[in-house]
Design goal:
Strand 1 and strand 2 (57-61) form a beta hairpin. With 884 residues, the chain is of the alpha/beta class. Strands 11-12-10-7-8-9-13 form a 7-stranded mixed β-sheet, with helices on both faces. Bound molecules: adenosine-5'-triphosphate.
Length: 884
């Protein structure tokens, strides 16, 4: 078996970097005409896997066949490629399974070009020529729109990045929902943060690579990828041209039919324009026949949101758990009470983009409050939402001309429901409820119009007919009537002919070769009337046709064809009519998604006993009886021990900036730390929070450093990962940040670790002065509280019984004096001799440690606000590890 793809005589059809390359020369002229066409198409899409329609299959040949058979575990076979060529590698998938297989390939990071037959093969065969085929779709990870290829509650983003020195532009769009955003900023680390937040399915990079248009799969290296770009994404290398300012700008102006980009807020942001224009060009390039209607471009600013870096999103387990990456156990899991796919996607976005605008947060809170105060309204809204389909994505498919009749009907039924929704919220006072009061009446009319046109349960395939109701189109009705008459005549034929011939077992049959025929046993052949024309003789049966039967047959077959065509035309017209309203529908869809999230927040607030936090323009964090929203739900009602938190207004006794949190293993330190972070984050999404009362100042960022794992991919040790993350926090945190540190300095020698932990805590309290909770097993850090006025000690308490420790999970003022680490070792089953030796060693260390001694001797209080003056003194006083 051979596989070919590259030729000496023709341009290469796969480049050396492509994963599907075969270097053997191929003489294209010696291939059969179909293969010659295949090669020609492949040359246009060298970096995509080509699936080529042959009869009922999508086949692929040469090296693509090898790649696809390996990736999809399909049988690799071979097929004659031409007399002098011999057999070439081939694999294929049935046409009805195309979506499934191409989705799998795209998920693996490949681009897939679909080359379909665009005419009736019988017609081409009748004219003795090859059936015409064209590329009908180019699927890449970021340009999917088909329902079956997307996850309902996830956005599928396509992004484009421009880097110019330390400045960068980033545009992203979800072409299935039409959202389209752009931004420009500086510092490449912020670009990295933003990409990790968005998790795009594909990122476009302009390059001068010789191999433009190639798609790098996650983890593939390239000199064209800047170091700052995370290697966990797919990158499409594109030509520079559409990303130049002139090209990009005019593409945007033409596409949105505007004279200036002022209204989009990016007129003076060249990098944002270049990214957005280049992205638009790519969409046009890949979508072929289907025009993708994007919503108006919106410019955003990264600092409009509470910034959550990758570690923080991971450590706070916002969308998936750290342990196994599952949805179950994440914050999203705990809070998702949405009823629609649009609401599900919006909730995910809101949790990843909490607000910093107090006004915005209060607007959301007001709507939640209104929905809590009016339970009947809330339940009615939620009931109605359950019957609303994915307006955003369906209207996208309608606009692109790929929606089928079922899509259109679902959309229409949802449009009618919108009217009911508008009536329900008529008395609403808050912003989000009011937004739904103004649903344009013509959308409801449009809904009814479509419902009146389409049958109740239309078939999946449009060209099979049976889509349009009777009474919509006079021609259609006449054709249907005529066809029905002919079919009736055919149905009666068996009875009339039996009577006429006297042959009681005469039958009417159909086969592909002769069409309709009359059959009777050979023994009765002499009873065949004169107008019977014999067509076929079988062992026991004679088959006949009659001129009238042939005439009716032709009429039935052509009428069915004409009927299907006419129905299709009526459907396309209907779809275009809806497409004109796509933007309007999507606007309403946003309001529906928002009310879905807010009614879900109201629901959970009621059933989980959340309170409305007071949002302040300050640094205060005052949470009374706070709970961890996820652990609380996992443990079951009433089992979680609530704990309060007071931080952030520099009164050491009541509100410190930095809390040193100590407590035995498994007492609940990590849980408490995360609980505070999650409450802050939830509050800034507008949600109510798990606490009795809460007053929360707006945070600009939440930082977390929790545990550490070796980053084998970048060859970094546990300790280096920990230090990198810590450095990032110290360099970027501000006094408005919330910093949650769970163990620092554990990955190295005890005293190095303790020294680093100490100086990090001190730096945060004196230089950064953000709100910090620092959980640690280094009890020595408790001494900081006696030195710095904005540091306080808290501990998670346990009750010591003669033979066991009882975890109380209560956070109380004061530092823990014991770790119970040896006790934990005993419980875990360490040998008794090891435990008793450990106790001896610990006694020795405690007696001789100069750390504790040194710290306790003559250290005066240092006020962090005057820390510059006291710095030298502080350093001297704390120079205590030297002589250990
Ligand atoms: N407030 C609480 N109420 C009830 N159970 C709690 C509470 N806090 C923690 N727990 C339970 O205790 C377990 C251990 O908590 P956590 O992991 O926070 O301990 P830790 O002090 O950080 O331990 P280590 O120091 O070993 O990392 C949690 O899995 C949770 O089930």
């Amino acid at each position: 078996m051979s596989s070919y793809s590259e030729s000496n005589s023709t341009p290469s059809i796969a480049t050396s970097k492509s994963p599907h390359t075969d270097y053997r020369p191929l003489e294209v002229k010696k291939l059969t005409p179909m293969y010659q066409h295949y090669v020609k198409v492949k040359q246009q899409y060298p970096n995509a896997l080509l699936l080529y329609r042959v009869g009922d299959f999508f086949e692929c040949f040469f090296q693509d066949a090898v790649t696809i058979s390996q990736e999809l575990e399909l049988m690799l076979t071979s097929k004659e490629g031409g007399k002098e060529i011999g057999r070439v590698a081939m694999t294929g998938v049935p046409h009805h399974a195309l979506d499934r297989y191409s989705r799998l390939l795209v998920e693996k990071g490949y681009a897939v070009a679909i080359c379909d037959q665009v005419e009736d093969s019988a017609q081409a065969a009748a004219q003795g020529r090859m059936v015409e085929r064209q590329i009908t779709k180019l699927l890449t990870p970021g340009t999917l729109t088909d329902e079956g290829m997307l996850s309902a509650k996830h956005n599928n983003y396509l992004a484009a990045v421009i880097i110019a020195g330390e400045h960068w532009g980033l545009a992203y769009a979800d072409i299935s929902t039409g959202e389209f955003f752009t931004t420009q900023s500086k510092e490449l680390t912020n670009l990295n943060l933003e990409l990790l937040r968005l998790q795009p399915a594909e990122i476009l990079i302009p390059t001068n690579a010789p191999d433009i248009n190639s798609l790098l799969r996650p983890g593939e290296k390239s000199q064209y990828l800047a170091d700052v770009l995370p290697d966990c994404f797919c990158y499409s290398l594109r030509s520079q041209t559409p990303f130049t300012l002139n090209e990009a700008k005019s593409k945007l102006l033409i596409n949105f039919r505007v004279r200036s980009l002022e209204g989009f807020g990016c007129e003076h942001l060249p990098l944002a324009i270049r990214a957005a224009g280049g992205l638009l060009e790519y969409i046009e390039d890949t979508q072929k026949a289907h025009q993708v209607p994007l919503q108006l471009l919106r410019t955003y600013n990264q600092v409009d949101f509470l910034i959550l870096d990758y570690q923080t999103r991971r450590n706070l387990e916002i969308t998936q758990t750290v342990r196994d990456g599952s949805f179950h156990g994440s914050l999203l899991w705990a809070l998702d009470r949405t009823c629609t796919a649009m609401g599900g996607r919006a909730l995910r976005r809101w949790l990843l983009e909490p607000l910093i605008s107090i006004k915005g947060i209060i607007a959301r809170q007001n709507s939640i409050q209104e929905l809590i105060d009016n339970p009947t309204l809330r339940q009615d809204i939620r009931q109605l939402l359950r019957s609303i389909y994915d307006l955003e994505r369906i209207s996208g498919r309608v606009g692109a001309g790929t929606a089928n009749a079922r899509d259109l009907l679902s959309l229409a039924e949802s449009l009618v429901k919108l009217k009911e929704l508008a009536e329900l919220v008529l008395q609403g006072q808050s912003l989000y409820l009011k937004a739904l009061q103004n649903i344009p009446p013509d959308l409801e009319k449009l809904g009814h119009y479509v419902i009146d046109h389409l049958v109740e349960s239309p078939p999946l395939h449009l060209k099979d007919g049976g889509v349009i109701r009777d009474g919509i189109n006079a021609d259609l009705d006449t054709m249907r009537k005529r066809l029905e008459d002919d079919r009736q005549w055919l149905a009666n034929l068996e009875i009339t002919e039996r009577e006429r011939t006297g042959v009681s077992n005469l039958k009417v049959g159909y086969n592909k070769t002769f069409g309709y025929y009359l059959s009777m046993p050979r023994s009765k052949a002499e009873q065949a009337p004169n107008n019977y024309v014999r067509k076929q003789t079988l062992t026991n049966e004679e088959r006949y046709i009659t001129p009238e039967l042939k005439e009716r047959e032709t009429r039935i077959l052509t009428a069915q064809d004409d009927l299907n065509k006419l129905e299709y035309e009526i459907f396309v017209e209907l779809r275009l009519k809806v497409a004109e309203k796509a933007q309007e529908i999507r606007k309403i869809a946003k309001a529906v998604a928002a009310i879905d999230v807010l009614s879900g927040f109201a629901e959970i607030a009621v059933f989980q006993g959340y309170c409305r936090p007071e949002i302040l323009d300050s640094r205060l964090i005052e949470i009374r009886d706070g709970r961890h929203p996820v652990v609380e739900q996992s443990l079951g009602f009433g089992l979680f021990v609530p704990n309060s938190t007071n931080m952030g207004n520099n009164e050491k006794e009541t509100n410190p900036d930095l809390i040193i949190l100590t407590g035995p293993n498994a007492s609940g330190k990590s849980c408490y730390l995360r609980q505070v972070g999650l409450i802050q984050l939830m509050a800034q999404t507008g949600s109510f929070v798990p606490a009795t009362t809460a007053k929360l100042g707006i945070s600009d960022r939440i930082f977390t450093r929790v545990g550490a794992v070796d980053d084998l991919a970048t060859g970094q040790s546990t300790f280096m990962v920990e230090m990198n993350e810590t450095a990032n926090i110290l360099n970027h945190a501000t006094e408005k940040s919330l910093i949650l540190l769970d163990e620092i300095g554990r990955g190295t020698a005890t005293f190095d670790g303790l020294s680093i932990a100490w100086s990090v805590a001190e730096y945060l309290a004196t230089e950064v002065q953000g709100r910090t909770i620092f959980a640690t097993h280094y009890h020595e850090l408790n001494e900081l509280a006696s030195i710095l006025s904005n540091v306080a000690n808290y501990q998670v308490t346990v009750q010591e019984l003669p033979h066991e420790i009882v975890f109380l999970h209560q956070v109380r003022p004061g530092g823990a004096d014991k770790s119970y680490g040896i006790e934990a070792g005993r419980l875990a089953g360490l040998p008794a001799s090891v435990i008793s030796r450990a106790k001896q060693v610990m006694n020795q260390i405690e007696t001789h440690s100069k750390i504790a001694l040194g710290l306790r001797e003559g250290i005066s209080q240092v006020n962090p606000k005057n820390n510059k003056n006291n710095k030298a003194e502080l350093i001297e006083q704390l120079d205590i590890f030297d002589d250990f």
